[in-house]
Amino acid sequence: MASSRFKPGQSGNPAGRKKGSRNHITKLLAALEKDLPQLIAAVKARALEGDTAALRLLLERLIPTKKSESSLVVIENIDSAKTLTEKSTLIMDAIANGRIPPDVGSSLISALGNTAKIMEIDDLQKRVEALEESDN
User: Which residue, 24, 35, 43, 114, has fewest beta-carbon neighbours within 10 Å?
Assistant: First the structure.
């Protein structure tokens, strides 16, 4: 292990940052503050002229990305499906037929995959315990 200049638990700057000091982002924002209206107007003008990068910049900053709303999802016959493969097939069918949004379906499929991994670990644990008991 490489040695460092500081001992464990000892700060490199025990006095901390000086009161009133500003980081470089704060300084940059303060420098831009007076010109901000003109900068926004310039980006807007470029966007209106067809500059797609300027348009994307404005839209990404002004309109938040819509996130999936959580709601109750009903997938017909999922309780009667005996295997995870059958369950995932029912989920894929619900996505394909527009009964559930693709992002929700993707989350459900991921949850099934995680469930499969947990089931594998449980199965391996039971097998190891059985082997240990048979050795005794």
Answer: 24
Range of the domain at 49: 24-62
- Give the Cα separation of 125 and 136 in Å (integer): 17
- Write the CB contacts of 92 (distance below 8 Å, at least 6 apart in sequence): 105, 109
Same domain as 129, residue 89? yes
Residues written for the chain: 136
The total number of structural domains that make up the chain: 2
SS3 83: coil
Alpha helices in 7-83 (DSSP H): 24-33, 36-48, 52-62
Q: How far apart are CA 83 and CA 94, in angstroms?
A: 17
Say what the pLDDT of residue 69 is.
67
**pLDDT tens, position by position, 53-94:** 999 998 888 887 777 666 778 888 898 999 999 999 999 999
Question: Which residue, 110, 102, 108, is CA-closest to 68?
Answer: 102
What is the distance between the alpha carbons of residues 79 and 76, in angstroms, rounded to a whole number? 8
Q: Is 2 among the domain residues?
A: no
